[in-house]
Every structure is written in C-alpha cells, then in structure tokens.
Amino acid sequence: MGHVARLLEEAGVATVVVAVRAFERRLGAMSLPRVVLTPHLMGRPLGAPGDSARQRSTLLAALRLFERATEPGAVVAMPGAYRPLRP
Amino acid sequence: MTEDTGAGESFAAFKDSFSYGSRTDLTFKFLKRLSPEDAARFLQELLGRLGDTCDDGRAERLVDHVCEWQRRAYAETEGPGGSSWTYADGPFTPLKTPVAASRLVLLASSGHFLDGDDPRPFGVADMTQDEAVARIADFLKIEPVLSAIPLDAPRERLRVRHGGYDIRGAEADPNVVFPLERLRELHQDGVVGELAPAAYSFVGACAQTLLLRHAGPAWVARLRAQGADAAVLVPV
User: Which pLDDT value is given to residue B6?
Assistant: First the structure.
C-alpha cells in the first residue's frame, strides 16, 4: 500500500494510511506523508468487529491528520488497546 | 525419566508450521519471524496469562499479549513477509480544502469485492479462503486486480478473500479493515464533504513491482477520474 500512497501523492491526491503498529517499521521505511498507527490486532486496523465507536475514532484521527500535517512524515499513534466487544 | 531422542518435530519446525504450514493460522504466522527462543517466550507467557485468565476470566491480557508480539515480530523490515522497499523521502500533497469540503475515496488492500464481481484469481471461480491461503506464493507473483465497490453497497453483498491475513474479523465486520459504513456515517454527519462514488479493494499480497510500475499508475488515474482530493488507505 505504501507504493499506492506515494503514487497518489505524486499525482496530487493527499493520502493517509491507517495501519496496525506492527507495520510501523515497514511503513516508516517508505517515507509516507501521513500514517495513523493503531494498537490493534493484525487484520483489524480500524478496531474490533462491531466496535463502531472505535472504528469511527480511528477514522477521525486519520481525517484530522489531513488538516494537521503540514509536511511529510506525520505519524500518529492511536492510544488505547484492541478490545473485542463482549457478547 | 527418559528423553525422546527420536526424529520428533523440532520446536523451530513447530513454530514455523503456523505460517503456511501444517498448522496454518494467519493470526499466529508471526511465530515464523521470531527466533525459537522468542517464540518459546511468547508461548510460555501466553500460557501463564491463560492460567491467570482461568481464575478471573480477564481475557484482555491474552489479546494484549498477541498484539504486542505481532508488533515485535514485525519490528524489523526484513525477514519472511518483510519488505526491502526503502525511500529517504517521499512526495507530499497538502489537502487544499478542509475535509468537510473535500471528496474522499477509500482504498484497502483487504481483498474485498462485491458479490457477483469476483476477480477470479488465476481464472478460478469461487475461490475459497483456504484455497487463497494455499496459493499465497502464486498471489505474490501476480499483478493485483482492483475491485470497485459502489458507495451504497450493503454489507451483505461484500465478500472478502485474502491469503495473507486472518479474515475472520473482516468476515464478522468489514469495517475492521474496509470502513465504508463508518465513512458513510461521517459523510452524513458532515465531517466528510463528499465520498467518491466507489470504494476500492485489492489483495495486497501481490507482486510489488507490478503494483508500483503498472497497476498502481492505472489505479491513480481511476481515482483521480472520480474527483478524489484525498484517499484513506488501509493496508493489512
């Protein structure tokens, strides 16, 4: 996905990448403009199934980065932890 | 007491078997990236925490343990499933208008597609997740196919298949990695100005050079044609 982010940025489309923090080094090596790292389980970067509040707050963190980042390399770490919803 | 000196399975082979081996479990494929010593530590601590959970039922400590060791296993960019792509700097496009006045597009490497629009990898109809996992080495050699998913697609019509990650969470709720419903809500709430008519997904386990040199540039043209000012990208 890092390649796609770079291509889009080159073409004038702003990007933000939302990924689990397990990918921090890999994404960091690609010098991406905006990255939100989440403390979530791999395969669930936005949050746990059914946890719409967490998914929304993760997206809001990403959207805020569009307006706050004034130079490349903006990385934000989401606080909290991955918490499956109890049945 | 006697020790088993037969040709039993080594611990290294055991831990590696969770990554496209006899015990494949993509949530735990990271074990292959760990040294035998670290993998043993992960398992010992997991069992210790499990013992505590047997008494108090607090499973959060198990979830935290798995998340933390996934992070540690991927802390190095090299290694199985790692990447050698490194850039000293990169392009940067500022968002020219506030998000509330911009058009966003969603693109995830999650392997989602719409029911009835199966990309049919390798020409195979109705490929199952297990078949995709079994053919991961083949996926890594081919150019990815972009699936367009209409903005108003109901959850029931979404399908997911990706041999590179554990899709159980995505099957239970696509928004864990393809947050189309959450973006629609943010648009309805006025947080996002507009959404592109379609969202997109592809299988991120693919030939990276073909993605960079061929598929990627074509996708950029498609997204720009939708008038996208900004893209939310979700890798898995």
Answer: 57
| Any domain includes A14 | yes
Q: Is residue A36 included in any domain, yes or no?
A: yes
Task: Report residue B78's pLDDT band, with 50, 70 and 90 as the boundaries.
Answer: low
B73 inside 8 A of chain A by CB: yes
Q: Within 13 Å and on the Cβ side, how many CA atoms surround B72?
A: 15
pLDDT above 90 for B186: yes
Q: With an 8 Å Cβ cutoff, are B236 and A45 in contact?
A: yes
pTM above 0.80, yes or no: yes
Query: Is A85 within the bounds of a domain?
Result: no
B190 shares contact with chain A (CB less than 8 Å): no
- Measure in Å the smallest separation between the Cα of A83 and chain B Cα atoms: 7
- Judged against a pLDDT cut of 90, whether residue B165 lies above it is answered with yes
CA distance A65 to A82: 21
Query: What does the domain layout of chain B look like in residue ranges?
Result: 11-73, 99-234
H or E segment and range at residue B20: none
Domain count, chain A: 1
Domain, as residue range, for A52: 2-77
Q: Residue A86 falls within a domain, yes or no?
A: no
Task: Express each pLDDT in A56-79 by its tens digit.
Answer: 999 999 999 999 998 889 999 999
Whether the Cβ atoms of residue B234 and residue A19 lie closer than 8 Å to each other? yes
Counting DSSP H helices and E strands in chain B, the numbers are 9, 7
Chain B residue with minimal CA distance to A21? B71
- Does B177 reach chain A within 8 Å, measured CB to CB? yes
Q: Which residues of A touch B232 (CB under 8 A)?
A: 15-16, 18, 59, 62-63
Find the closest chain A residue to B70 by CA distance: A22
> What are the pLDDT digits (tens) for B105-129?
999 999 999 999 999 999 999 999 9
ipTM value greater than 0.85: yes
Q: Who's near B95: CB < 8 A, 6+ residues apart?
A: A14, A66, A67, B102, B229, B230
